[in-house]
Design a protein that fits this description.
The longest helix has 37 residues, at 2-38. A ten-stranded mixed β-sheet has the order 3-4-5-2-1-6-9-8-10-7. It has two domains: 2-25 and 250-324; 51-247, Spore Coat Polysaccharide Biosynthesis Protein SpsA, Chain A, CATH 3.90.550.10. A hairpin with a 7-residue loop joins strand 4 (118-122) and strand 5 (130-134). It is an alpha/beta fold. 50% of the residues lie in helices and 18% in strands. The chain is elongated and about 80 Å long.
């Protein structure tokens, strides 16, 4: 029983250190972002030199596309990759609303493009930031490669149809990119809200030339694979949000404490069945230690969420309920 106690206590200690470290990094990133935003000259210079192309793959509505065009970042375009065979009315509506005309798709061998995609751009200057690519959908990686080929700027942000950038995402991304030396960062990833501590939900800003040199996106998880292949860093703040419950995995931190609590509980009943009262008392202490550590970690995660997202409206009663349920969602 002693080895089990040492193992659980060691895991609790390591987990608690990781929770505190992650919270400190998030708060430090938030303070750094505020500091950079106050340096108006620095921010203006960074944003005047860096253009961003957001490449969106998946079925969307007109209102969702219009929402993506509302960013105030001036060197910015949205490349929407759609499949008109699934929704022909969407393409007709976009052509009418934004005065889109079909133009020649660029003949290039930068990345392999399957099929014959159609490219649409607006005749009106105020809608020049919208680019529509119509192609038969094969995979998300193929859509992103197609959008990368037609992208006008050096920095690209590939995202799914159910993910949206937060209002201050692009300025924050670009300022952080320049502060870290743009030429040395081929990719800079960030969290997706709602997020959990230690999950794999990411959104990233890539160097277009680095993606092309790497052969483009590929695989079942194209973004994750490309992040691992390129040099870069992680920004410990959410810069995008997900509107789909499918992309909201269970908290790894919560699962860890559930497993540790279950193991200690099984050990408790086993010791009681064997009438080993010393071992049962030790197992009971493990359960108490697990719950106490989980409660403290949940408190740290909750306070971090409330500080980072000041606009999150939650009553004290709901916060207490969340703590008692040992929910470790940060946002």
């Amino acid at each position: 029983m002693w080895w089990l106690s040492i193992l659980i206590l060691s895991v609790l200690a390591v987990t608690l250190v990781m929770v505190v470290t992650a919270s400190v990094r998030m708060l430090a990133a938030m303070r750094k972002g505020r500091m950079l935003s106050e340096c108006h000259g620095y921010g203006s210079e960074a944003m005047s030199h860096t253009g961003v192309s957001v490449v969106v793959s998946g079925r969307q509505t007109v209102s969702e596309i219009e929402r993506r065009l509302s960013s105030e970042y001036w060197r910015y375009e949205v490349v929407v990759v759609i499949d008109s065979s699934l929704d022909a009315r969407l393409l007709r509506t976009l052509c009418h609303k934004y005065a889109l005309i079909r133009v020649s798709f660029p003949a290039t061998d930068e990345l392999p493009i399957d099929g014959t995609p159609s490219l649409y751009r607006s005749r009106q200057r105020r809608y020049r930031r919208l680019v529509v690519v119509d192609r038969l959908h094969r995979s998300r990686a193929d859509d992103w490669n197609c959008g990368t080929v037609v992208a006008s700027f050096e920095r690209i942000v590939p995202i799914e149809a159910d993910r949206f950038l937060l209002p201050d995402a692009l300025p924050r991304w670009v300022m952080e990119l320049h502060e870290r030396n743009e030429h040395r960062n081929e990719v800079l990833s960030a969290f997706v809200a709602p997020t959990h501590l230690f999950d794999w939900q990411r959104v990233a800003m890539f160097s277009r030339s680095a993606v092309i040199e790497a052969g483009g996106f590929a695989g079942e998880h194209p973004r994750r694979t490309m992040i691992r292949r390129l040099r870069g860093g992680l920004l410990h703040l959410p810069l995008a949000c997900s509107t789909s419950r499918h992309h909201r995995p269970k908290s790894p931190l919560q699962q860890t404490f559930i497993v540790l609590g279950a193991v200690a509980t099984v050990a408790l009943f086993a010791k009681i069945a064997c009438q080993d009262w010393d071992g049962a008392r030790e197992a009971l202490m493990l359960i108490v230690a697990t719950y106490a550590t989980a409660f403290f970690a949940s408190t740290v995660a909750l306070r971090t969420r409330l500080v980072v997202r000041a606009d999150h409206d939650e009553s004290n009663v709901e916060s207490l309920r969340r703590l008692l349920r040992c929910s470790f969602r940060v946002y």
